[in-house]
Write a structure and sequence with these properties.
heterodimer, A: 333 residues, mainly alpha, 71% helix, 0% strand, flat, B: 227 residues, alpha/beta, Rossmann fold, six-stranded mixed β-sheet, four-stranded antiparallel β-sheet, 7 helices, 10 strands
Chain lengths: 333, 227
Amino acid sequence: MVFHPAILALHTSSILVTFMILYSTRHGIQILRSWDLKSGSEVQLNLERKTYLISSLLAYAFAFQLGSLFLFVYAADHLHTLFVGAMCAAGSLYVNSYGYPTLVLKVASFLLGGLWLIFNYVDNRAYDYPLIKKKYFLLLVISPFIVVEAVLQGNYFFLLRPDVITSCCGSLFSVSGASVASEVASLPSLPVKIVFYSWTALTLAAGFWFYLRNRGGYLFAGLSGLQFLVAVVSILSFVSLYFYELPTHHCPFCILQREYGYVGYPLYIALLGSTITGMGVGLLMPFRKTDTLREVIPVIQRRLTLVSVSLILVFTAIVTYRVIFSNLILEAP
Amino acid sequence: MIQLLDVRKVFNAGRPNQFVAVDGITLSIEPCRITALKGPSGSGKTTLLSMIGCMARPTSGRITVMNREVTSLPERFLTEVRRKTFGFVFQQFNLIKGITVLENVMLPAYPSGERHATLRRRASALLDLFDLSQKASARVEWLSGGEAQRTAIARALINDPSVIIADEPTGNLDSKLSQEFMEILRRLRENDKTVLVSSHDPIVFNSSVVERVICLRDGRIDGNGGC
């Protein structure tokens, strides 16, 4: 099982990314301790030279990391045929106790890695390394996630036992269960729909306001971050039902399968992308007055806002299309 | 104004063949003047010029060019500083064979994205200035030593830099051409260019156009006047 190409790719990338992150973290600690741009010491000049290499290294590491989330879900989905009871990635991830924690950590490191890439991009636009210490502090926050995730992922794949009878998504996300997922799935569809569309409208309005007036960056970032949670709840509560045209099937993974045109991939990419770019706007807000970034940050924030708003619109358009054209009717007119 | 603060350059640091090329030089170079670096082979002239011209980084110390600290700049910013601030004239001229004199002069300005016709006009004007108009379409390998050198100077000026760096520019020239070169430096000086020239040729450092001579020995400024 561990010789499945996707699993081998995940292991290899995970080992490489962890190695690169740990190496960079060591360099980051040195920067946090010794960085002094006013000094012309050999140590300082070495750090300046090295940081150029390290930030390129990390940019690739995090780019791999972003891709590995989807590869992990794809691998889990692909493996479901090997386990009795599993119908999709939901069942495969439930085979042992490492599957879901790995997924949660991958999503967290996806979001944090994306934010780091934005930070790094902005820092590289100025000649005097204005965000360097913050950037490496953020790296120190992220690196434990990456290391733990690599360990959990390794445990998950190495401890997969084909004789385990797992649960199918129908029971994992059933309204009658006692888990958090079941609680969310059992939420009534109409109020969740209202919350989803209201929140989306608010986030879009804040995005357009920021794009046009250059104000309310924190508000837009906050709304974007919470939009992620609202969207996840909505997928479990009502969006999934319209895709499957079944009033009881709340699985967030089956939409990644061929039967549903792999629609889950664009849906989740749009959601994660809009969250990262939206939150990125807020991340950059405190540095708008930094001398060498004064002209750089507003331009980048506008671009991020445009990407975020566009991706929210893509997500909402996919959801709304299914809500309108699905054969399932949840609420009587 | 170019300022150097305790600049060191060590090659192969920590290895048995470690070599200290520049050893703790602190120096101010005034703008719009001709400054010559004088010293024997291996005294650190070329290394120092490379670091001032942002082609090499010091091992330690800081260099400021026009109030901008350049030793900490990432490479993509250095490229712009190099292109806009410095013009280089090398001992071997380093002209690119197989293309014409005009194309050689235009070459350093290509990354700027300037319109080709405008760039061509500017390059032609420079060739005219150095009496090379007749050779514009000739290949550089057909040029005489003096013509090649003037082409190299025209090329150094194409981006209108404020500082001209010339490393042993008369090393391959006879006395007459060397005198001609010094005359060109005088014209550059009159056009408010800062000129930094390294040489161990007496024609250069004894010339009346050179306003300051800095003596180097073993990577240090020789303060004894012995060079």
